[in-house]
Amino acid sequence: MREENAGVRLPSVAEGAYPTVPLAMSEFAEPSLEEYRLYARIILWLSRQPRVDRMETAPPSLTQAGMASELGASLSSISSGLRRLTEGGALEEWRSHVRGRRLRVKVYQLTPEGQTLAEHLRNGMARSSLRPVSEPGERSNDP
Q1: Are 99 and 60 in contact (CB under 8 A)?
Q2: Which domain holds residue 78?
Q3: Is residue 134 scored above 50 in pLDDT?
Q4: 40 occurs within a structural domain
Q5: Which of 3, 73, 122, 130 is deepest in the core (most CB within 10 A)?
């Protein structure tokens, strides 16, 4: 029987070991490789976004719709990934005013555990030939 907050290991991107991704496993089936990749993309995306105070107006990039658009994933996939990462303690969520929106919506930010995981993911990619996706409008230095 699995524990309530049992972690799930990300597949190794390089030879370096990664910390356990904290995911609440009691309600969910084992994630697929594609889901693991999406979790990593969400964590890396949020690590590059500005930190906001709960009383500030948040940028659209911290919302489900903003992440789905920027990461090229479906809203349902993003929503599911955010729920698992939030329940596992890698993300925090709250309702906030968002630029360009009339009503408050859920926004997401990395917790200290999520920030540590993002750092490990970036370090693993630095040791491999993989690189994070460029920011929109940013030119890649790849040949």
Answers
A1: yes
A2: 32-50+57-126
A3: yes
A4: yes
A5: 73
